[in-house]
Amino acid sequence: MDNRRAVIDAEKCDRSPWCPVKRVCPANAVEREDDNDPYFVNAYCQGCGKCVQYCPRRAVSMV
Ligand code: SF4
């Protein structure tokens, strides 16, 4: 596994309760503080890159 991590652009995140990015993450690294908040990637991210292609708003990038 490389050292990259996923980052979610809070401006682009539509805050959907059915967020596919959250669902596909094998590390359960996508979360948010509250129901109306945008999602963010926590320290459990393994950098697999799987989530990037699942965001319909292209809010996820690898850094
Ligand atoms: S890069 Fe992989 S581990 Fe990190 S948030 Fe995306 S799906 Fe989860």
Automatic annotation (TrEMBL):
Record has Iron as a keyword: yes
Entry GO MF terms: iron-sulfur cluster binding; metal ion binding
InterPro entries to which the protein is assigned, alphabetical: 4Fe4S_Fe-S-bd, 4Fe4S_Fe_S_CS, LdpA_Fe-S-bd
SUPFAM superfamilies: 4Fe-4S ferredoxins
Gene3D superfamilies (alphabetical): 3.30.70.20
Keyword check for Iron-sulfur: yes
PROSITE patterns: 4FE4S_FER_1, 4FE4S_FER_2
Protein keywords: Iron, Iron-sulfur, Metal-binding
4Fe-4S ferredoxin-type domain segment(s): 4-35, 36-63
UniProt protein name: 4Fe-4S ferredoxin
Organism annotation: Thermincola ferriacetica
UniProt lineage: Bacteria, Bacillati, Bacillota, Clostridia, Eubacteriales
